[in-house]
Amino acid sequence: MSRPAETFSLLSPRHRLLAGLTLALSNFMVVLDLTIANVSVPHIAGNLGISADQGTWIITSYAVAEAICVPLTGWLSQRFGAVRLFILGMVGFGLFSLLCGLSMSLGMIVACRIGQGLCGGPLMPMSQTLLMRIFPPDQRGRVMGLWAMTTLLGPAMGPIVGGYISDNWSWHWIFFINLPIAVLCVFSALVLLRPVETVRVKLPIDYIGLALLVFWIGCLQIMLDIGRDRDWFGDPLIVMLAVLAAIGFCVFIIWELTEEHPIVDLRVFRHVGFTSGVFTLALCFGAYFAGIVVIPQWLQISMGYTAAWAGLATAFTAMSAIFVAPIAGRLVSKADVRIMISGAVVWIGLMTLWRAHWTTDADFWTIALPQLVQGFGMPFFMIPLTTLTLGSVRPEETASAAGMQNFLRTLAVAISTSLVLTGWGDGQRISRNEMVGRLNADTTIADLTSRGFSPDQARQMVANLVDAQAQVVSMDHVFFIAALVLFLAAAVVWLAPRPTGTVDRSAAH
User: Fold this and answer.
1) What CATH number does residue 276 fall under?
2) Are 243 and 183 in the same domain?
3) Is the same domain home to 84 and 218?
4) According to the 3-state scheme, what is the secondary structure of 433-446?
5) What's residue 488's pLDDT?
6) Which keywords does the record carry (predicted)?
7) What pLDDT band is residue 485 in, cutting at 50, 70 and 90?
8) Are residues 320 and 250 in the same domain?
9) 203, 225, 247 - which closes a domain
10) Under 8 Å CB-to-CB from 474, ≥6 apart: which residues?
């Protein structure tokens, strides 16, 4: 239960504007943190004395924690109230951001990133829900457009801000910058949003469902993260984690489908349109995120880019997407959304194939141009897909469907990060071995020695060249596989019937 929809009348236009800016800023901060650490992983790994592979736990731990918490948002907001949940989430997010910046070990920073994800998970859907409560219907379209702009701008600015801070200050500041924003948002919410608080309902807690959710996702993610270092299923621990994740997942499905008050409503998957839509979303985001993870690391490790320039090269996708998002929003009501989604996903797949031909001779614009062109297709995929998935379920199921949609999207990003980095690393070793087997190294070393290089210098130069080529060849293979996944996703969406109902996108998060 909640107060009447006319809660927007409880705030003056000035207070409404300030509250709207506060909510948009909070959403921007949360989505910024999804990507701000990507380009900073080499800095953090070097400072903490860990490998780059271990450093990716900093990315995946945040994503998985958020994935666990997002589907619980509906229950949490009813239990504690929307405004109270927003304030508590913002306080926790700020506190864990401080602890992330103070971390001196991998274990501490991963634990604090998990805390960040758990507290930040409800902030994105809550900011959208509260915006719908404080603005009248005739203004909600423009307001949600502003909210969508922050959602697109955050991932774009993350690599740039993270890169600049890592290069010029210290990686610790990528977390410390959240503190003043969190304090401002908490203070503003306490002053401005109290009148639009929702009524609290004491709901039964599905403890078993919650425990099973955390258990199987935790086992799966740990397996994916440490599998690269433990020869995957050649290690008994990995086998055990895989078995536990599979058993936990099966028990979770059975329990949630038979529980009277499930923590996650899985019954929405009975709608074919929703199921095909969310699997399309998961496949696309997983494949799309492959580039966001691999490209910055390749540019810094192999191409000599600073973190700031690596971030800028990867940010063009969201920059171009911002400009065409209004067009996509207007076309949704006039065209078959399946055509828009399928065409956009094919477009993104073609841009991924374009990247699959990169070499070590690629200059900045060779790298940035596919990112820029790809961005023109992103809104034609994201906005219509919300219409398709939420238009396929009953109105009373919209909130559960939106939560499940974001759960699968976030989980897909976390799994993709682990799988992509595993594939990239394995591909590098295979490519390097093939090159070494075919390379006439003795002749090359002799030629370099005759030009004044010492034998050690000559061997190191040859090894560096082979490593650089192996990295780019393996990365191109990753992009090729990602493109195939995208083309598959473009076909999966056609399993859905065309949505005919009016969609209430206010519950989407």
Assistant:
1) 1.20.1250.20
2) no
3) no
4) HHHHHHCCHHHHHH
5) 92
6) Cell membrane, Membrane, Transmembrane, Transmembrane helix, Transport
7) very high
8) no
9) 203
10) 423, 424, 425, 426, 427, 428, 430, 431
14 and 73: one domain? yes
Report pLDDT digits (tens) over 130-151.
Answer: 777 777 766 655 666 666 667 7
Q: What are the distances in angstroms from CA 50 to CA 167, 228, 440?
A: 19, 14, 34
Q: Do 382 and 451 belong to one domain?
A: yes
Residue 414's contacts (CB-CB under 8 Å, 6 or more residues apart) are: 59, 60, 63, 64, 67, 221, 224
Spatial separation of the C-alpha atoms in residues 476 and 467, rounded to whole Å: 14
333 and 221 in a common domain? no
Q: Report how far residue 426's alpha carbon sits from residue 420's, in angstroms, rounded to the nearest whole number.
A: 10
- Reading the block at residue 175, the tokens are 């977390």
> What mean pLDDT value characterizes the chain?
79
406/374 same-domain check: yes
The confidence score (pLDDT) of residue 137 equals: 66
Q: How many structural domains are present in the chain?
A: 3
Q: Are 327 and 383 in contact (CB under 8 A)?
A: no
Alpha carbons 504 and 399: distance in angstroms, whole number: 10
Say yes or no: 292 and 253 in one domain: no
> Could you tell me if residue 298 is left (phi over 0), alpha (psi between -120 and 50 degrees) or otherwise beta?
alpha
Domain that holds residue 181: 1-203
Distances in whole angstroms, Cα of residue 138 to Cα of each of 8, 19, 141, 149, 391: 11, 17, 7, 19, 21
